[in-house]
C-alpha cells in the first residue's frame, strides 16, 4: 500500500494564542507533500477537508480507501479536486482517462470507484496536488485547463501584489458540492498575496505554495486579525487555514499558490476583509 495518512483535530483561536513556533508548524504546516511513488493525505477536522498529493514514477498509483473514511471506496461519500504541478501525467477514473498538463485541473465527483494516477515520464513525473471534501451529491467529472478558468487580474506593482487568480474548480466553471479550488500566480516584482487580508467564517481554506526557488521562501500570515501569527513556508508545502483565521503571505520573490476551500457557502466573495492598518 503506497498510501500514507495523518489526522489533525481542529484548534480554536484561544489555544493558538499560546502556541510557539513549533506548535504552530505541527498544527498547521503540511510539509510531507509530493513524496515520490506515494499517495499522501492529511485528514483535517476543519470541514472534514483532506489535502494530499500523488507522485507516480514508473508505475501507477491507486486512490485507495482509508480506514478514516469507513467506506468501500475513497469517493463513496466524497469529491476530489486535482491540480498537476509537475510533468505531464494522466488520471483514469472508472475507465476514462484524462491527460493533465502542468497546471491543469480535474474534478472527480462522488461515486467514482476506481481512480489511478500515472506519469508520462518518470524522470519528469506528474505531481498531483489533491483536495477532497465530503459530498452529498454526484456531479460529473470534468477536466479544466487554465484556458477554461475564470481569471481575475488584481492588485498592482505599486502595492507589490499584481496577480492573476485562476478560478478553476468553482461553481461558475464546474458543478461541485462544496469543494472549490484555484491557482494564483504573482507577477515578477510582486510578493503579497491576498491583501487586504480576509476571513470567511463559513468555510476553511488550505494554501499550497509552489514555484518557490530553493533559496527563497514565503512568510504566511494566519490567526485572528488582531492576533496574527506567521509561518515560513518553502516550496511545495501547504498551510491549513481555519475558518477563524486570515490567510495571507509575502515572499522573498514572486511565487504561485493553489487555494482550496470547503464549507457552507460557494460564493467566492463571501468574506470579511481587513485593511493593512487594521491588522495587529
In a few lines, what is going on in this structure?
By secondary structure, the protein is mainly β. The protein has two helices and 24 strands.
Structural summary, described in words:
This protein has two helices and 24 strands. The model has no long low-confidence stretch (mean pLDDT 95). The strands form five sheets. A seven-stranded mixed beta sheet has the order 1-3-4-11-6-9-12, with no helix packed on it. It has 280 residues and is mainly beta.
Question: Notable features of this structure?
Answer:
single chain, 280 residues, mainly beta, seven-stranded mixed β-sheet, 2 helices, 24 strands, globular
Secondary structure layout:
Layout: E1 3-8, H1 13-16, H2 21-28, E2 29-30, E3 39-44, E4 50-54, E5 61-62, E6 78-84, E7 89-93, E8 96-100, E9 105-108, E10 115-119, E11 128-134, E12 142-144, E13 150-154, E14 163-169, E15 180-186, E16 192-193, E17 197-199, E18 203-210, E19 218-224, E20 227-233, E21 237-241, E22 248-251, E23 256-263, E24 272-274
Parallel strand pairs: 1-3
Antiparallel strand pairs: 2-21, 3-4, 4-11, 5-10, 6-9, 6-11, 7-8, 7-10, 9-12, 13-14, 14-15, 15-23, 16-22, 17-24, 18-21, 18-23, 19-20, 19-22
Amino acid at each position: 500500500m503506497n498510501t500514507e495518512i495523518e489526522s489533525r483535530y481542529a484548534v480554536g483561536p484561544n489555544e493558538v494564542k499560546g502556541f510557539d513556533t513549533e506548535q504552530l508548524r505541527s498544527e498547521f504546516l503540511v510539509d510531507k507533500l509530493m513524496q515520490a511513488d506515494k499517495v499522501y493525505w492529511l485528514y483535517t477536522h476543519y470541514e472534514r477537508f483532506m489535502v494530499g498529493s500523488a507522485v507516480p514514477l514508473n508505475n501507477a498509483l491507486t486512490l485507495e480507501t482509508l480506514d478514516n473514511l469507513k467506506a468501500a471506496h475513497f469517493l463513496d461519500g466524497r469529491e476530489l479536486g486535482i491540480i498537476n504541478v509537475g510533468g505531464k501525467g494522466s488520471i483514469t477514473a472508472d475507465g476514462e482517462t484524462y491527460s493533465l498538463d502542468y497546471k491543469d485541473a480535474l474534478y472527480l465527483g462522488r461515486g467514482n470507484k476506481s481512480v489511478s494516477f500515472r506519469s508520462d515520464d518518470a524522470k519528469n513525473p506528474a505531481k498531483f496536488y489533491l483536495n477532497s471534501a465530503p459530498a452529498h451529491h454526484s456531479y460529473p467529472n470534468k477536466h479544466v485547463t487554465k484556458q477554461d478558468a475564470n481569471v481575475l487580474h488584481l492588485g498592482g506593482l505599486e502595492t507589490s501584489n499584481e496577480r492573476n487568480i485562476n478560478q478553476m474548480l468553482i461553481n461558475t466553471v464546474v458543478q461541485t458540492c462544496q469543494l472549490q479550488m484555484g491557482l494564483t500566480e504573482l507577477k515578477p516584482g510582486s510578493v503579497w498575496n491576498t491583501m487586504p487580508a480576509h476571513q470567511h467564517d463559513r468555510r476553511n481554506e488550505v494554501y499550497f505554495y509552489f514555484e518557490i526557488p530553493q533559496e527563497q521562501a514565503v512568510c504566511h500570515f494566519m490567526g485572528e486579525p488582531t492576533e496574527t501569527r506567521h509561518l515560513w513556508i518553502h516550496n511545495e508545502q501547504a498551510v491549513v487555514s481555519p475558518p477563524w483565521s486570515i490567510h495571507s503571505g509575502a515572499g522573498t520573490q514572486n511565487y504561485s499558490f493553489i487555494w482550496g476551500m470547503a464549507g457552507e457557502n460557494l460564493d467566492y466573495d463571501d468574506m470579511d476583509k481587513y485593511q493593512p492598518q487594521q491588522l495587529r
